Amino acid sequence: MDRDALAEFLLRRRESLRPSDVGLSEGARRRTPGLRREEVAQLAAMSTDYYTRLEQRRGPQPSIQIVAALARALRLTSDERDYLHRIAGYSAPDRSVFTDYVRPGLQRILDRLHDSPAFVVSGLDEVLVQNDAARALLGDASHLRGLERSGIYRWFARPGTERGRYPEADHARQSRSLVASLRAAHGAEGTRARAAEIVRELTPRSPEFVELWETHEVRRRFEEHKVLIHPELGEIEVDCQALFTEDESQALIVLTAAPGSEAAGKLELVRVLGTQTVHSS
């Protein structure tokens, strides 16, 4: 870990960003350029004191998860993200496999989406980042760890809880779509990566998964129209728009409803209610 390089890099990147670059309001007049330390800490889901110690060369080596969170918060490019990992004492992530790093283009679009539920997912259906409206509708995914982060894994390993947000009539279609996405990720990642681990874990646990896996269906897409079940408001019909990265390893998902429709009213109510009244992922 190079404390001096890490502190200087964090400071310079923080100073180079405006609040509007990360989806924050400008607020009152600022005495210093760029983002405040507390704003970076908020974006990275860490304490302001911990982030401040990193900039002041007093903090312990950040974990690999913290480094990834800082890369997202500071909207780093792939090269900048690799550099941050190295000065923090880690090897740069392999760019050929799926990672938690959110592509800056997708992140910038997400930063500007406030009224519609929107989130970025990996090829393993892991929610990498989500806006407040998405947390209110679908639950906060930030607490999930390990294989539980994958919606594909949870769908088959925890069907009693995970499938409750979809009508039963849609379960078979959703199962097929998720397995086809996993097959695509498995081909891209190889046999020793997380996709293969999910396959190994689900094979003895879910006959349904095994049957679908053996069909060898491969596709990476999302249904354009779906019905979600909110625990208090019931069924909400939404249109699903997906914006993929060039290699299709990540997708920005935006959920909308026709203006003036009952579904649009429910989405607005969910957004107002916030995350306190919804189930967790």
Features:
five-stranded antiparallel β-sheet, alpha+beta, 434 Repressor (Amino-terminal Domain), 2 domains, Beta-Lactamase, 281 residues, 5 strands, globular
What does this entry look like structurally?
This protein is α+β, with helices and mostly antiparallel strands and 281 residues long. The protein has two domains: 3-87, 434 Repressor (Amino-terminal Domain), CATH 1.10.260; 104-277, Beta-Lactamase (2-Layer Sandwich), CATH 3.30.450.180. Helices cover 43% and strands 12% of the residues. It is built from 13 helices and five strands. The chain has helices at residues 3-16, 37-43, 48-55, 64-73, 78-87, 104-111, 132-138, 151-157, 159-162, 171-189, 194-202, 207-213, 262-273, and strands spanning 118-122, 127-130, 225-230, 234-244, 250-256. A five-stranded antiparallel beta sheet has the order 2-1-5-4-3. Strand 1 (118-122) and strand 2 (127-130) form a beta hairpin. Helix 2 packs across helix 4 (64-73), helix 10 (171-189) packs across helix 11 (194-202) and helix 10 packs across helix 12. The longest helix is centred in the middle third of the chain and has 19 residues, at 171-189. It is globular, with a radius of gyration of 20 Å. The protein starts with a helix and ends in an 8-residue tail after the last helix.
